[in-house]
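Example complex used in Figure S2.
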Amino acid sequence: MNIKAVVGRNVRRYRELKGISQEELAFDADLHRTYVSGVERGVRNPTVLIVGKLANALGVAPCKLLEYKETS
Amino acid sequence: MNIKAVVGRNVRRYRELKGISQEELAFDADLHRTYVSGVERGVRNPTVLIVGKLANALGVAPCKLLEYKETS
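Predicted assembly (144 residues):
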């Protein structure tokens, strides 16, 4: 699995765990909703600053968004 | 500490642990040496694809490069 897809899956997972919509996450992270959607679909190639914004809005450590778990 | 500085410190730390130069890391990651230097200095804002290339060349999981340790 490529790293963009890993980040996308993690963002979606933590967003759903938090029970918020893409709109809400986008607002909290100061990003556009379509951008968040693109990240979740593994289409976007976000920079570490964006990963930091998303992690902050999700309440997780940035490294969690790059974590690849074989079993998940 | 901002996330670019965190990534830079981690890249330098793992590179030095591996005992390779910035040139060697740049070559292995298919990046320019000045770019690797900029990442290590926390000046560059690399994308997750670049973080993946650097992690691969360093032999560590990509999430390790975003890890922030208060004590280190």
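Chain A has a mean pLDDT of 96. Residues 3-66 of chain A form a domain with the 434 Repressor (Amino-terminal Domain) fold (CATH 1.10.260.40).
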